[in-house]
Amino acid sequence: MKTRYIILTVLAALAFSSCSKLLDEPRKGVIDYNTYYKTDEEIESAGITLYSDVRGWYYNVMLVKNIISDDYYAGGAAHGDNVDMDALGEFGFNSETAQIQSSFEGYYKLIYHANVIIGHIKPEQSKAAATAVAEAHLFRAWAYFELTTLWGNPPIVDHELAPSEYKQANASTEDLWKFIEDDLTYAINSNALARKTSLNDRETWRVTTEFGEALLGKAYLWMATELKDKSYYQKSADMLAKVINSNLYALWTDGPYGDMCHQANKKNCENLFESVRVNDLDNQFDNFDFYGAMVSWRSSGGEMTIPAEVCGSGGWGFMVPTEDLMAAFVKNGGKDGYRRTQTLKTYDELKAMGVVWNTATLSTGIFNWKGRFMAEDITYYGMVNFKNPLWMRYAEVLLLAAEANLEAGHNDLALKYINLVRERAQLPALNGVTLADIKLEKRLELCGEGQRFQDLLRWGDAYDCLKDMGKDYPKMEPNGAVSYVPSGRSVYGFKKGKHERLPYPLTETMLNENVKQNDGY
Amino acid sequence: MITTRRGKGDGKISYSYQLSSQSLGKVPQVMNSEEFIQFYMEKGNITLKDVYSKWDQKTNTDWLAESYENSLMHHHNLTFSAGNDRGNLYISGSYLSNDGMFKGKSDVYDRITGMVNGSWKFKPWLEVQTNNQIEYYKARTVSEGSDYGSAVLAALQLDPMTPAYYTKENLPVFMQDYLNEGKVLLQDEKGNYYGISQFNISENVHPLVQRDRSYSISKGFNINGATAINFRPYKDLTITSRLGYRFSSNDSYGYNHDYYYNEGYAKQYYMSVNASAGNSIYYQWENFANWMHQFGKHNVSAMAGMSFSQNRSQSANSGVSGSDAGGVIDFGLKRDDPLFYYIDQATPTATKTAGGGVENFSYKYSYFARVGWSYLNRYNVQATFRADAADLSVLPKPRRWGFFPSVSAGWTFSEEKFFSGIKKAVNFAKLRVSWGQNGSIAGLGNYAYANDIASTGQYPTGQQKADGSWEYIIGYAPSMAGNQELKWETSEQINVGLDLRFLRDRLSVNFDWFDKATKDLIVTGVTTSTIVGVSASPMNAGNVDNQGIELEVRWKDTVGDFYYSIAGNFSTLRNRVTYLHPTLKNGLEGVGVRNYGTVTRFEKGYPAWHLYGYEFAGIESTTGEALFNHYDDKGVLEGTTTAPADTDKRHLGSGIPTFNYGLTFNAGWKGIDLTLFLTGAGGNQILNALNNIDYTSNRLTYLTRDRWTPTHTNGTMPAANASNYAQFLTSSGVVMDASYMKIKQIQLGYSFPKKLLRKIFVDQLRIYASMDDWFTFTKYPGFDPEIIGQGRSMGVDKGNYPTSKKLVFGVNITF
Q: Average pLDDT of B391-400?
């Protein structure tokens, strides 16, 4: 009988022995999220995702913002080559237009990565940690600036969402601008952002305090309009003055104006922030990006023969300059003005350089010169390019400051800043400045750099400038004769009450009914 | 409960053998040469000139007949058993050899199994039981079930004008040219070359080329079983400690030949060889106590216990491959000789891959308890409770535990006094009610809920290092959103049943009504709102409800030497998605047909993964284009269109049968026995995805025989050159009734008289012949409608391995 009780006791002990610790089997081959972001190297690796994300924005964002303006036709091999691009240029876009959807997704992807950093890294941990958190605030604010100025009232996502929180609703205009202001203020005051060591520092590749100040100065200019509060003009002027007075940036004059964006002139004294690409043949697909092929002159089908020293060949011919843009240049500096000839080239000018046209193309006989991709900037059928995507340069800061000062009543400063830009453009100095002067100067100086559409919306000029976009498109014969062909759209051009906002992607409104689609879509 | 085989009596030996001859069951019908040429000339893919130069005017290959053959399956089984009141012993061995219907030894399953079960009462209070099975298998299979080409689909889609073989002497010029260029064309065992299609140039190449261009085999063994000690310290209490175990080992080996079939889709100028080996060790340890006590007319019982299981697995794989990069051919192996088709024989320049070597563990931990009470076999009530914990690879730690109660009650009202009057007619009547919950982790594992850190690529700083190389920083970020809210999927079932037996058990009726609601269904591959900014992890995405009835009626009787029984069953099922996580407003997308569009969807208000697509509305008589219903913005039917939009897609059916039925008939007379068994299902649909429009591929005659042509403008199927054929192939035009009835078995047996057998020391001897899966009645024009699609692919026929019909002979003998 005794044996029985011993067995019983042993069995009872076994039955209640707990094995639950074994359930905590750790995962192999991956880095645990909860313990990551400890060392500076790990923190750096989190921060760098934001730089990759921004570089990834360029293709969609630049094409959308340029083609939707009055400066460019969509272009391509022929009308209908890229239906979505045509739709952008002709105001026929909708919630399923791919580039709008991809731009929107690109901004929220960065916001997620920024939230990961802000949620998991304590700035007091180390210098690198403070930098990563400050940069995350700066980049997140930048994404929200773009989202707010283009879509209006996107949802604010300020932390990593749990599945029960996936359906965030539209945020109010006030909250969005407050969010942008707070994020940028945090970044600027963190004392953790990089700063150029001198005017000619061409090493600094990170976002700087001055870039943060320039973004905030720019945001204040929008807030003055969007929040209907003129006091923001002074705030904008003050913030931009910090950038100007830092003396770390200046207009670039080391070569012809039209070459300022070339590979050789990366990180020049004028550039506030650019994404980095390197000509590394061992890793060339890191630079996989169709932008170079898209915007280069249409020659991939043998339409043009281009001498190598003039420009790269094989382009797909999107972003065709309008005659209206050319006319604006002629109005401000004459037909053969320096900045005009360094920004756009005409049929005759290119012909003189040895360019030959073989077939008719979708062209106005006007070709982008500033920002062109040279043969050495581009490889692998145009799908890889080595130019640094440029996001903001000092000329923009000066023109923003000119506008802010003019509106704040400081006409002398406004005049000083616009004349700096005009001087480099080899234009005579103005004696007095009006808002119209600044609008024209900004259009010409920054054309093709993705600023025009948001400016037109802010100035309230969008309808007047864009109402006829999409009526027709140009066709140029090999002899240079240009005619216009109707687009075939019964409805085209900017519509009041609708096109002040881009549509939220269908994927968003389908999955999240708390996001209200913008009017008219 | 699994009942294990146990020995009885003082020693028995029995042997059985079964021989099955298998042949192709139900197959679809495709166009013959003449129809094919006519169809594709209308479509404009081929010209009369093509036909004259590439066809000998008579070949009409039946690719199914060229791919499949009748084949045999053998099954031997030998058993020794014995037992008495203290214990028993059961030893058996069996051998199964199945050469599938695909020609040659390309689909083979061979298995040897041994079993040793035993138990012994060492003391009145101590019993030991052990059950063990050892199995060794080897298997080869052919490709199936893909709309992007498989050996099964190729037999339907290849053109009938291409011959299956050419002799060396009769090779067409283009194939001779290939040989002259040094290309390797595959040959059969007689040296004939497999015909190369000049019409259908696609990934669906000659089925036997698909068989012969590669070789793969997997082999392995499993040892599994359980050993238990039952300990009875008192009369009412039994304590059991049981260890279950499974040791598995498997390895695979395969190679791909150099060969040439066509330029775009099927060629390789080098060889590749791969091999893998893996093993897993699983054990489950359960300890539980069972207490039963009787007092008066009451019986009470209680049980409580725990269980813990662990599975450890590890595998490693390796491969070598040659290359033709830059036009330079590296064969990959030192010699083109089967004796050199091994990884060890790789050329120094061959690409070598290796993987695995990770020791993976999974665990499960449970507590369970049960209490019961019964009174006079008249009333019984039972309640159970389980608590299950999943390990960290399955669920996040705070959500690890799932708790699943259940209760049931029964009332045998035929035992009541008021029933005694009719007890002669109704000898048993019982009412059952139960409610319970069950948990599932739906195949989760591998930390799918976690947000692990993965590389997002590298970013250059623009600085060059001392050696001239560029400096990069590698980015890391979570690759998934993670879902720390993920929890057990729970099924809650209510069941009401009635069991009736009449006329001394000769007639029995069982009826059940059930409602099974699955809550918090775990779904992977979810698309969420863009603003989340990262891919979603698995979610508890929805609720699914299954409701139905089950009815079983059985009649058995004996009349002199004649006995017979008839049993019929009928069940219904209503499957509905009742709730979907708000994040997934418009449902989850399922599988697509090639790149023509998605055809299944998980959506509130419809059966799980129902079929959806365009509504085919006939043929435009002027053009032969397919017409589809078109809806306006408000969802109101506006008319028909030849160019439907995504918003025109509608519910088209479901792959889940709404009813199933079966009928079994048994009869015997003086040693002769007959069994008839039939089964059927209905109320479901199949979307036929056996056709494609991307190549000059053969199609089912279902689609082609009554097509629109300029001279047959009232055809019911689209013209050969209809520009919206791709939309048609994802529309209700290819959704078909999948109802079927099958006679699963007709078996006739004879047992020799015992008197006769005793003289040769044989206890029992039975021989039988059977026709299995022989007759199928259905209107569905594809393969067997019974075996099509699971989960997301439910009801989508992409060409699974065809079912066989079998002629079976067998013998059972017991000494």
A: 91
> Helical H runs in B181-323?
207-212
**Residue B356 backbone zone (phi > 0: left; psi -120 to 50: alpha; other: beta):** left
Instruction: Residue count of chain B, please give it.
Output: 815
From the list B310, B476, B536, which residue is nearest A45 (CB)? Answer: B476
Instruction: Give me the numbers of helices (H) and strands (E) for chain A, helices first please.
Output: 18, 12
Residues of B160-184 as b/e, b for ≥16 C-beta within 10 angstroms?
bbbbbbbeeeebbeebeebeeeeeb
Closest CA to B580 of B548, B539, B531: B539
Using the beta-carbon criterion (under 8 Å), do A15 and B289 form an inter-chain contact? Answer: yes
Q: Do residues B590 and B598 make contact, with C-beta atoms less than 8 angstroms apart?
A: yes
C-alpha closest to that of A469 among A499, A435, A502: A499
Q: Which residues of A touch B453 (CB under 8 A)?
A: 30-33, 36
The DSSP bridge partners found for residue B679 are B662, B742
The greatest distance separating any two alpha carbons of chain B, rounded to the nearest whole angstrom, comes to 105
pLDDT in tens, A276-327: 998 887 777 777 888 999 999 999 888 999 998 999 888 999 999 999 999 9
Contact A14 B241 (CB under 8 A): yes
CATH 1.25.40.390, chain A: domain bounds: 42-193+458-467+495-521
ipTM: 0.89
Query: Do the chains contact at A23 and B456, CB–CB below 8 Å?
Result: no
Residue of A nearest to B587 (CA): A511
What's the alpha-carbon Rg for chain B, to the nearest Å? 32
Backbone angles phi, psi at A332, to 5 degrees: -115, 75
Residue range A42-193+458-467+495-521, CATH number: 1.25.40.390
| Amino acid in the structure at residue B706 | D
Indicate the residue of B365, B453, B481 with minimum beta-carbon distance to A20. B365
Strands (E), B124-201: 126-140, 165-166, 193-194
* Half-sphere exposure of residue B325: CA atoms within 13 angstroms, side-chain side: 7
B 548-587 residues with CB < 8 A to A = 581-586
Q: What average pLDDT does range B106-120 have in this prediction?
A: 95
Element spanning B221, H or E: strand B214-234
- The residue among A140, A174, A151, A57 whose CA lies nearest residue A106 is A57
Phi-psi map region of A74: left, alpha, beta (phi>0 left; psi -120 to 50 alpha): alpha
Q: How far apart are CA A483 and CA A475, in angstroms?
A: 5
pLDDT digits (tens, 9 = 90+) for B675-712: 999 999 999 999 999 998 888 999 999 999 999 999 99
- Helix A394-408 / helix A231-245 crossing angle, nearest 10 deg: 140
pLDDT for residue B50: 87
List chain B residues with CB under 8 Å of A7: 231, 233
Cβ <8 Å between B363 and A4 = no
**A–B CB contacts, 8 A cutoff, strictly below:** 201
Give CA angle at B647 (B646, B653), nearest 5°.
Answer: 85
User: Which helix H or strand E contains B430, and what residues bound it?
Assistant: strand B426-440
SS3 A46: helix
Among B241, B453, B473, beta carbon nearest to A11 = B241
